[in-house]
Specification:
By secondary structure, the protein is an alpha/beta fold. It has 13 helices and twelve strands. It has two domains: about 15-45 and about 265-355, Aspartate Aminotransferase, domain 1 (Alpha-Beta Complex); about 45-265, Type I PLP-dependent aspartate aminotransferase-like (Major domain) (Aspartate Aminotransferase, domain 2), CATH 3.40.640.10. The chain has helices at about 15-20, 45-55, 60, 70-80, 90-100, 115-125, 145-150, 170-180, 235-245, 250-265, 265-290, 310-320, 340-355; strands spanning about 35, 85-90, 110-115, 130-135, 155-160, 185-190, 210-215, 230, 300-305, 320, 325, 335. The longest helix has 24 residues, at about 265-290.
Length: about 350
């Protein structure tokens, strides 16, 4: 795409012209074993469906969203005050709100590479200066180099913990050191995969005024289509975030679904337990085939397929099994989402036939 201005045409901002388009391969997935987007592979809690059916009346749909009861329930679930979080249209809106609220055009946003693509996307869209720190050769978090890269000019630091697409994670000590090294920066710890990792800093939001934590309902709760998330921080920060947010950015169906989802503790715990058991099955199966896997704390495993990465992805798709090629950013690597045991065993069976083929 050229940066040149076109005569006699509307021209976008320079930041938009410079951006690379983001086009996830999301078409034609229905009816297949979807192990490519880290979604819940069995769907949401039955309580969510029941709540949506009860809410779907003409009267409810004709009223603009009213979030008071929703925020009360979610604040109780997350053990925060109602003024310590913002309900968002997925984690994506949370990222955009943080950048738009606290980063001026040209100011620095510090990221890990590779990581969730939307961090760079929204930073670039805001006209920020993006600086990325490469993961270590084994794809672990480059803690010393990352901390050394923090400068007084750094205005935001965006970290997924565990990281997507690598699965690497950091602990409390590392997060504390980053927060203390960057008091002038908005530090986001994206806990999208928290349920599979169980290390959280959500309770720290009153101790560190530069800390933001995000959670999503797209993963363990099985509500990716609803687009619902939360951004947590101290009350002073969330007041600024609310000021920058559209008043009705979260549709009421998503809010109702979120409340129903957090009430079904048994569903969530059972799904997490099965995913963790299936993760070991996949890890052991890949290892048995002589395939290198990268340590993971999430509901997915990144593995090295070399020059067979794209052919393996395509052959699995033809078998009805979807995985995600990541070789465009991590050469030779493929990411597989972990679901139920039977789904994982099917993936391994199909992969083994392909991998051992002469």
């Amino acid at each position: 795409m050229t940066d040149a201005l076109q005569p006699d045409a509307l021209n976008p901002r320079a930041a938009v012209r410079r951006m690379a388009p983001y086009s996830p391969p999301s078409g034609g997935r229905e009816g297949k074993l979807r192990l490519d987007f880290n979604e819940n592979t069995v769907g949401c809690s039955p309580r969510v469906i029941e709540a949506l059916r009860e809410y779907l009346t003409a009267d409810h749909l004709s009223i603009y969203p009213e979030y008071a009861e929703v925020t009360r329930k979610l604040a109780g679930f997350f053990e925060v005050d109602r003024d310590e979080f913002v309900l968002s249209n997925g984690t994506d809106e949370a990222i955009q709100l943080l950048v738009n609220t606290f980063v001026e055009p040209g100011q620095e946003v510090l990221l890990l590479k590779p990581s969730y693509a939307m961090y760079r996307f929204y930073a670039e869209l805001a006209g920020a200066s993006v600086r990325e720190i490469e993961s270590d050769p084994d794809l672990s978090f480059p803690f010393d180099r990352f901390v050394d890269a923090i400068q007084p000019s750094t205005r935001a630091i965006l970290i997924a913990n565990p990281n997507n697409p690598t699965g690497a994670s950091i602990g409390h000590d590392e997060i504390r050191a980053i927060l203390e090294a960057a008091p002038q920066a908005a530090v986001l710890i994206d806990e999208a995969y928290f349920d599979f990792f169980s290390v959280s800093v959500l309770s720290w939001i009153r101790d560190y005024p530069n800390l933001f934590v995000s959670r999503t309902f797209s993963k363990v709760h099985g509500m990716a289509a609803m687009r619902c998330g939360c951004l947590f921080s101290c009350a002073e920060n969330t007041r600024w975030i609310h000021k920058a947010q559209s008043p009705y950015s979260v549709n009421m169906l998503a809010a109702v679904a979120a409340c129903a989802a957090v009430e079904d503790t048994e569903y969530r715990e059972n799904y997490v337990a099965e995913v963790l058991a299936a993760r070991k099955i996949v890890w052991d199966g890949l290892t048995r085939l002589g395939i290198r896997c990268f340590p993971t704390s999430a509901n997915f495993i990144l593995f090295y397929a070399g020059d067979r990465a794209i052919p393996i992805r395509d052959a699995l798709r033809n078998c009805g099994v979807l995985v995600r090629d990541r070789s465009y950013e991590i050469p030779g690597c493929v990411r597989v989402t972990i679901g139920r045991k039977a789904q994982s065993e099917r993936f391994l069976a199909e992969l083994e036939k392909l991998w051992t083929r002469s």
